Amino acid sequence: MVHEWDAAVHVAAAEGDPAKRGFTLDELQTLLDHADEQVSRIRAAGRKGWLPAFRDATLFKVAYAYGLRRNETRMLDVADFGRNPHADEFGNYGVLYVRHGKAMKGSAPKRRSVLAVWDWVPEILVEWVDDIRPMLAIEGNPALWPSERATLVGLAQINARLSAYRDALGLDAGLDFHSLRRSYVTHLIEAGWDPLFVQQQVGHEHASTTAIYTCVSSDFRTRTLRQALDATMDAALRPARRAR
């Protein structure tokens, strides 16, 4: 039995806000495609703003790809990636070492390692780190997401970009930067990944917190129900089949 004094406490109001949710796969693809299109549009117009637009488009993809919080994403350095010896296909981006994870009250930032799971991750990071980022970052700046005016991009700038894209596409106002993290959890669960693995990937101490983030689609629930019913029916009919 769980009592209120020993249950996990969720202090972030947004976790229980019914307006907040993850992106569906279609919404996420639409958002990321739109971000890429803005880079092409700005660059074709001969405007220098295409570099920050490229940075932010890649930043959104990486935040989703590793299930990161906003500040965890912002504070990344180029050196925070490494190889996963059990998954060579991800190259130098098989593991992300998060150094600025959400801290417990009164504690230092919590560190964790996150394994790459999507096969498209290395391609976008190689392009950004090797080809595009050097045109924006000053020499000696270790930040993965440098700004044209500062060492790294600001939180307000990240929020403003995502909100502008969301609104331009007419997407739900309840979708924010944290929705990328919610989507990561949901999409992994829907794809059949072990819930404990997902919990460890996103750095949740309690499984109940991960469950709050999970907003599986009606299609997933329908498939799960159908599979359970089919399995139950098959088990019920098996003795009858043997009798024949």
Written description of the protein model:
This protein has 244 residues and is mainly α. Helix content is 50%, strand content 6%. The protein has helices at residues 25-44, 50-66, 70-74, 121-132, 155-168, 178-190, 195-202, 207-213, 218-243, and strands at residues 81-82, 95-101, 110-115. The protein has a 3-stranded antiparallel β-sheet with strand order 1-2-3. A hairpin with an 8-residue loop joins strand 2 and strand 3.
Helix content: 40-55%
Major sheet: 3 strands, antiparallel
Structural class: mainly alpha
Spatial order of the strands forming the largest sheet: 1-2-3
Q: Cα-atom Rg, whole angstroms?
A: 21 Å
What value does the average pLDDT take?
Answer: 85
Q: Report the count of strand segments.
A: 3
- Oligomerization status of the protein chains: single chain
Strand residue percentage = 5-15%
Tally of helical segments: 9
